[in-house]
């Protein structure tokens, strides 16, 4: 049975759009208010200005909500990153396997260890594709390099039959590693992408 998940936190509508709409409305309504005032329609002018004031207040509240949500997501992701950094390599593999199960994968297995030929977690995605993940529980100053990716790339498809191959790390990737992955179709999940996946604010490896 698929594990229940919360909806992903969708990016908010760019505040620039709302601001531009408000500015456009102000450009139309302010002259209208002035015209109403000069025509002796004080009530009409007051009503228009009241609309503009209400729109400004609503826009300010919208910005405050979006800022609060951004801070909440950053704090949540930061907590997840710290938790994964505190794990050992084997524990991290099981944590990644848990995320796969939570998000609907079937047949999830932790296979990392001696003779794993690069695979640490294997699973079947909700759509049936074979997912093969290599886990790199590195410290924040140790980057995942191209040699790591090349070793995984040599086995993930030909040996493990991956239809989705991914490397998930608590660190980041070097530029050569990123270039190698781009050419071989390996999906890279650095600490930011991992934290987003774990907190339901980003996609899983098979959904990116």
How would you describe this protein?
- The protein is of the alpha/beta class and 208 residues long.
- The protein has two domains: 15-85; 89-198, Trna Endonuclease, Chain: A, domain 1, CATH 3.40.1350.
- It is 52% helix and 12% strand.
- It is built from six helices and five strands, in the order αααβββαβαβα.
- A five-stranded mixed beta sheet has the order 1-2-3-4-5, sandwiched between helices.
- Helix 1 packs antiparallel against helix 2 (42-85), helix 2 crosses helix 6 and helix 4 runs parallel beside helix 5 (175-184).
Averaging pLDDT over every residue, what do you get? 81
Residue windows where pLDDT falls under 50 for at least 5 positions: 1-14
Across the major sheet, the strand order is: 1-2-3-4-5
List the quaternary state of the chains.
Answer: single chain
Structural class computed from helices and strand pairing: alpha/beta
User: Total number of β-strand segments?
Assistant: 5
CATH class category label of the largest domain: Alpha Beta
Q: N-to-C terminal Cα separation, in Å? A: 22 Å
The name of the CATH topology of the largest domain is Trna Endonuclease, Chain: A, domain 1
Whole-number count of domains: 2
β-sheet strand percentage: 5-15%
In this structure, how is the largest beta sheet organized? 5 strands, mixed
Q: Assign an overall shape.
A: elongated
CATH architecture of the largest domain: 3-Layer(aba) Sandwich
Tally of separate helices: 6
**Order of SSEs:** HHHEEEHEHEH
Helical content class: 40-55%
Radius of gyration: 25 Å
């Amino acid at each position: 049975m698929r594990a229940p998940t919360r909806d992903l936190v969708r990016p908010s509508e760019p505040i620039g759009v709302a601001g531009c709409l408000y500015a456009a409305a102000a450009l139309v309504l302010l002259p209208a208010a002035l015209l109403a005032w000069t025509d002796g329609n004080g009530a009409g002018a007051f009503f228009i200005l009241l609309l503009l004031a209400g729109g400004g207040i609503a826009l300010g509240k919208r910005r405050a909500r979006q800022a609060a949500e951004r801070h909440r997501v950053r704090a949540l992701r930061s907590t997840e990153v710290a938790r994964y950094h505190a794990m050992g390599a084997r524990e991290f593999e099981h944590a990644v396997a848990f995320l796969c199960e939570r998000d609907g994968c079937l047949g999830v297995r932790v296979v990392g260890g001696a003779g794993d030929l690069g695979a640490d977690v294997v699973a079947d995605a909700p759509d049936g594709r074979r997912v093969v993940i290599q886990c790199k529980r590195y410290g924040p100053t140790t980057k995942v390099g191209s040699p790591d990716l090349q070793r995984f790339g040599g086995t993930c498809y030909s040996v493990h039959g991956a239809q989705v191959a991914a490397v998930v790390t608590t660190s980041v990737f070097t530029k050569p590693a990123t270039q190698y992955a781009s050419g071989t179709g390996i999906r890279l999940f650095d600490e930011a992408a991992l934290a987003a996946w774990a907190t339901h604010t980003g996609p899983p490896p098979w959904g990116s």
